């Protein structure tokens, strides 16, 4: 099978295509013939050696999201059969024609749905729904979403509006993304370089972090809460939390899915339901062949994507 790995940290150019033996599924794992592979900002960061927790051991295969067909089951796996079509998170890399996925985090793709849609809708939608349900907007509470045009962010904008949030503010790096976001229902679009982001909000879903984190905390009204789900790191302005009685909650999909399996399953069903009824649209920015993984990373690093970037083996 073909796979893409990096043998040294660097830009997209260090990604190289290799031939390799098929991996063997261990206990609790599925072997999946990939039909669509999600490309994310954390993947690009890992290739540069600045992923969460520092650099990966080299060489490494990036990738954490797949959709495709189950071709083998590890020992003790129940609930799936060879031939099933699934989408899943992966923790052992996914830029390959065959990838290992934990069965506990895999979910079925409905008949008639494409693998590309599964990756764009479910993988990013799970993050958006987890962030939104953790924040639990109530009544007339307002929500600001940073990285709002990203794969995750553009679904969070739509999901917040579907939940009845009266004021959804979409924050992005470039004004060129405004039309896309208004088209998805955002009430206001702001860019990071604007001096003011408008009236304070009750909730921030922070998909960017880093230097933007203090700004995102400052955008909160008194008593507001921020869900920190990004890979950008950053320094928490602790005094601002104290002075404004604000809270920050961290969120990783890995833990959310493991600790809340029922909610994770419910969110999966909800995402497909909303997509089938035409209420939720997962935008696919581009689909590229696996061998063009470097080009996919260039798009993400240029901060140019509107929605999901997908590789097709
Ligand atoms: N907690 C979890 O388990 C989990 C799971 C998946 C994703 N995430 C996080 O969710 C966020 C969005 O992920 P995604 O996969 O939806 O993103 P994506 O589709 O890969 O989009 C990346 C977008 O992030 C923005 N961005 C902010 N800082 C950037 C930087 N330094 N370099 C490049 N782009 C930057 C850019 O838009 P703007 O310039 O408009 O900001 C860019 O278009 C990421 O921080 C990711 O780590 C978290």
From TrEMBL:
**Record's Pfam families?**
ADH_N, ADH_zinc_N_2
Q: Which residues form the Enoyl reductase (ER) domain?
A: 10-311
* An example molecular function term from Gene Ontology annotations: oxidoreductase activity
Q: Which protein is depicted?
A: NADPH:quinone reductase
- What organism does the UniProt record list as the source? Streptomyces natalensis ATCC 27448
